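FORM 12-B: Structure-to-Sequence Request
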């Protein structure tokens, strides 16, 4: 079945927690404030499947239908269903960017600006410093009863799965679906500029059926030779 509660979170960056190499599943954590409430977004920077390096692409001048419609959303989390699917994202069907521009990056690496932690941190900190609006697409946390384990606010609400959510290997095939991909879009209002940050796992196939399941293995259909299905 598709994601539990797909949607988009609109807010402002308040704090960050860059990747800790000791984490079992490394994420770049972001504390967002939205309409007086606290949220956390967990951005994957490594895959549990092999290869571990995540595919990454950022559009410095992002332009799509989304930038004309999502500013109308209220701050906070908006569930996306069949009733408001115009807000949804799909890497394969939506024409958001050229998949061939995605490159694999390690989670962390010695040196400046050469790993996914560095790349994500650059844009998130720019958003914080310029008071930009962040739109994070993904799946809402299922358990919001406890205190957030990183930023310690309560309840611990937020979203994860901020990456492509279709064409998964058997282990994660239950999360497959179309028009439910995750991403981070940043609106720099004062500059009239948008940045789009997109992530996918190398284990995901880019040839999927109407339910988002892989119809060809990665070896036959990766991000460099995919076609819209």
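FORM 12-B RESPONSE
SEQUENCE OUT:
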């Amino acid at each position: 079945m598709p994601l539990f509660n797909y949607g988009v979170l609109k807010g402002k960056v308040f704090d960050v927690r860059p990747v800790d190499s000791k984490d079992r599943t490394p994420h770049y954590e972001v504390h967002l404030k939205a309409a007086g409430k606290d949220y956390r977004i967990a951005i994957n920077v490594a895959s549990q499947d092999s290869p571990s390096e995540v595919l990454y692409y950022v559009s410095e001048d992002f332009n799509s239908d989304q930038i004309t419609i999502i500013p109308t959303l209220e701050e906070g989390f908006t569930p996306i269903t069949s009733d408001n699917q115009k807000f949804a994202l799909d890497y394969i069907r939506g024409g958001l960017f050229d998949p061939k521009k995605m490159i694999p990056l390690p989670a962390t690496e010695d040196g400046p600006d050469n790993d996914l932690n560095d790349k994500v941190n650059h844009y998130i900190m720019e958003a914080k410093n310029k008071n930009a609006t962040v739109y994070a697409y993904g799946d809402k946390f299922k358990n919001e009863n406890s205190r957030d384990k990183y930023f310690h606010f309560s309840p611990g609400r937020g979203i994860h799965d901020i990456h492509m959510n279709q064409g998964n290997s058997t282990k994660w095939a239950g999360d497959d679906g179309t028009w439910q991909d995750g991403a981070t879009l940043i609106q720099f209002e004062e500059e009239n500029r948008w940045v789009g940050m997109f992530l996918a796992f190398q284990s995901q196939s880019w040839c999927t059926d109407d339910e988002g399941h892989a119809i060809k293995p990665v070896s036959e259909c990766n991000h460099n030779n995919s076609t819209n299905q």
